[in-house]
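Internal tracking record. Fields below are filled automatically when a chain is submitted to the structure queue. Please do not edit lines marked as system-generated. If the sequence contains nonstandard residues, flag them in the REMARKS field before resubmitting.
Queue: standard
Priority: normal
Entity type: single polypeptide chain
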Amino acid sequence: MQFKDIVGQRDIINRLTAVIDSGRVSHAQHIVGDERDGSLQLAWAYLQYLCCEHRQHYNDGDLRADSCGECPNCKKISQLMHPDLHFIFPNPPNGSNSVSAEDYMREFRDFMLSTQALGTLNDFNETLSGDVKTSMIRETDAANIVKVLNMKPYEGGWRMVVVWNAHRMNASAANELLKTLEEPLPQTIILLVDNDDKRLLPTIESRVQTIKVKGEGLKFKVEENAEFAGMLVGWLRMLFKLKMKELSMQVDKMATLNREQLKLFLQYAMKVMRDCFLNTAAGMECHLGSGDEKFDSQFPKMITTNNIELVQSAIDDAIFAIERNAYAKIVMMELSFRISKALKKR
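SYSTEM-GENERATED OUTPUT FOLLOWS
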């Protein structure tokens, strides 16, 4: 996972890369934000950048730096196969006192890779046929992590732990982890990932540095969603036909939005495209809300592993251009051609 793969969050990403480059990495951090906004993605990309052997730095664009994606560490972390990268997460009881996240590690890695770390706890529990209400992080999970952290790292670098939905730690698990947070081992980093900063135990919260992920694409009021949904579906229909007169009229309509509205529309479009991809890749629900059941059921199939990065890159570039006062109609027309081309690569 590279930072460029995350929608939005550029201010946060740039601050994080600057801190890592300075060598002042906090041993325990609490990343707070909705799963659909990339909180788990951010933790994943953060650790890949931390371990990258050939970090890339840029002089232009909205991203100051990123991992190379090609070195051995990058490849191992991108596939969640690095021996010093560990996860704990809520897991459902199975009637055994020995149940722990370790019992579901293969399923969790498959879940992260298939959803690109944008799935929710509900989504994960559905893959296990478990009840989200009874899923928790137990003392056994925390004890396993403490044991791992007290061993020498396999590859001599960082020992890394991601605690997903950390607020689901019961009191015993939190107490087990507390000493490690109070007395950190060298070259060890623990990232707590959560969707709520008010439910973590105070004893844990006071010992971590909190990073709040912005709600990219989820800030819309109901009436804005309805307007954007109609505009988006009308635009997507034009992209299939690519009849220039009709497409030009649709682009003219979108270009009448002011800069902030257009940015919100593009963020909304990205969220819909991301939901479509999750529907195709992992069978998650996707509601376009066009009012046309056939279109709503067929379009998500157009967004696949073959074109999601092309779509994301095209929308990211359009948002970047709008932020810099580019002429909206030209930006949206260029975006239309890029999305239309990407859809043909499904």
